[in-house]
Amino acid sequence: MASLPFISSLSILIICTTLTSAATATIKVSLSPFPHHPSSDAYQILSNLANSSVARARHLKYPNPKPNAKTDAPSSFLKTPLFPHSYGGYTISLSFGTPPQALSFIMDTGSSLSWFPCTSRYLCSECTFPNVDPAKIPTFAPKLSSSTKLVGCRNPKCSWHFGPNVHSRCQDCEPTSKNCTQACPPYIIQYGLGSTGGLLLVENLVFPQKTFQDFLVGCSVFSNRQPAGIAGFGRSPESLPSQLGLKKFSYCLVSRQFDDTGISSNMLLETGSGTGDAKTPGLSYTPFYKNQATSNLAFKEYYYVTLRKIVVGNKHVKVPYSFLVPGSDGNGGTIVDSGSTFTFMERPVFELVSKEFEKQMGNYSRAREVENMSGLGPCFNISGYKSVEAPELTFQFKGGAKMVLPLTNYFSLVGDDNVVCLTVITDNVVAQGSQGGPAIILGSFQQQNYYIEFDLANDRFGFAKKLCA
């Protein structure tokens, strides 16, 4: 049994260590959580995070179908700050243009296109978040950059996002023309509760040690519920890892208590052509799983891992195999998604897990009112207790790697600290039998204080507990 200390604020931060070798240099990117707003209603914050996690899960599970659709260099490391935020995301700072313009981007492993709020006319609706003024969201100014170029309709990078059939939409281009001036079509992207739209550019992505020219990026002129741009770390050609030729990237998400405090850590990006299968000391690894489904090619954008077991306390929760591994239709399986706050489980899986918690925590009364207010559950009344004894939650992956979660990664104190709630969610709207897409989505809340590594060169996922702050 694990004991829950009384920490009630929600915040994430990332700290990454610098790896060294004879043939490497280093670039860092800072990761930060959004700071907690002192006057914010705790129930409302949790309800917003729960609702956005469910909406995000729906989007990942039922995405719009994607159309069918590197240069080598000595290995080097790029670093950028990573910051946690109370709206649920972690942001990194990236600089685009000539001269460079620095902006914040939500780090998202569940999507691929990177985009920034763009032009002085950028409009974001429903973007009132703690410490975010919709009228003052920083934007990229294309007219101030000498390296900004619109992507042409016949540019191969246009098809990265729209697929090879985009050429049929180049109506102003002659079929044999190589100098067509028609722009790539506008994009509109959905992110669960939010969305964005704009035009594709190629622009310089600038790090202190290196500049990447002609990086494909979206110039969004309108958004909904998007407090910052998106840095897409998915698996498609337009993603940041693909365009930079990353061998691996890693991060360490700090506790949610640092939301909106300005505390940051580093995200590590390793580029170059160097190969080799050396593992980072101390990490447990499991291979990425290739979802071979052709019913929805968007599923190929996700980072699937094979979850073998879910254990609550010492009890193995017997989840049906069809939820643990994608079937021939591509549905089922587990993905790792930094863009989701709370871990999502398909309702049949969630019910098995939550009922086991209810059984093992039967000495605490249920806090039904808090469940209705927060969108989380089960919730337990701990008034009068100096500490809470709760069963451990363990995810065991293919190859034997075990993620034994700290209690603060799956239970949260709510309201006046007299109630704790399980921070795993499900969709109460989707009817039984209508499940699709990934059955389990491992969100950022459950990744707090873990060093996480996406080893792309060796197609594996690594992790280890680490105090990230």
Strand percentage lies at 25-35%
Uncertain residue ranges: 5-28, 34-39, 67-74
Q: Helical stretch count?
A: 6
- Using DSSP, what is the number of strands? 31
Q: Using the alpha-carbon principal axes, give the shape.
A: globular
Q: What share of the residues lie within helices?
A: 10-25%
Assembly context of the chains: single chain
> Could you tell me the mean pLDDT?
85
Task: Please give the largest β-sheet.
Answer: 21 strands, mixed
Distance between the termini: 25 Å
Counting helices, strands and paired strands, the structural category is: mainly beta
- Radius of gyration based on Cα positions: 22 Å
Explained architecture:
The protein is globular and about 75 Å long. A hairpin with a 4-residue loop joins strand 4 and strand 5 (101-108). By secondary structure, it is mainly beta. It contains six helices and 31 strands. The protein has a 21-stranded mixed sheet that branches. The protein has a four-stranded antiparallel sheet with strand order 18-17-24-25, covered by helices on one side. Strands 21-22-27-26 form a four-stranded antiparallel sheet, with helices on one face.
In short:
The protein is mostly beta strands.
What is the fold's blueprint, element by element?
Blueprint: E1 2-3, E2 28-33, H1 42-61, E3 76-84, E4 90-96, E5 101-108, E6 115-117, E7 123-125, E8 149-150, H2 156-162, E9 187-191, E10 194-206, E11 211-224, E12 229-232, H3 240-244, E13 248-252, E14 265-271, E15 284-289, E16 304-305, E17 307-312, E18 315-317, H4 321-324, E19 334-336, E20 343-345, H5 347-360, E21 365-366, H6 368-374, E22 379-381, E23 389-390, E24 393-397, E25 402-405, E26 411-414, E27 419-422, E28 424-425, E29 440-442, E30 450-455, E31 460-465
Parallel strand pairs: 2-3, 5-12, 6-11, 7-11, 19-29, 20-28
Antiparallel strand pairs: 1-23, 2-4, 2-14, 3-4, 3-14, 4-5, 4-10, 8-10, 9-10, 10-11, 13-14, 13-30, 15-16, 15-31, 16-19, 17-18, 17-24, 20-29, 21-22, 22-27, 24-25, 26-27, 30-31
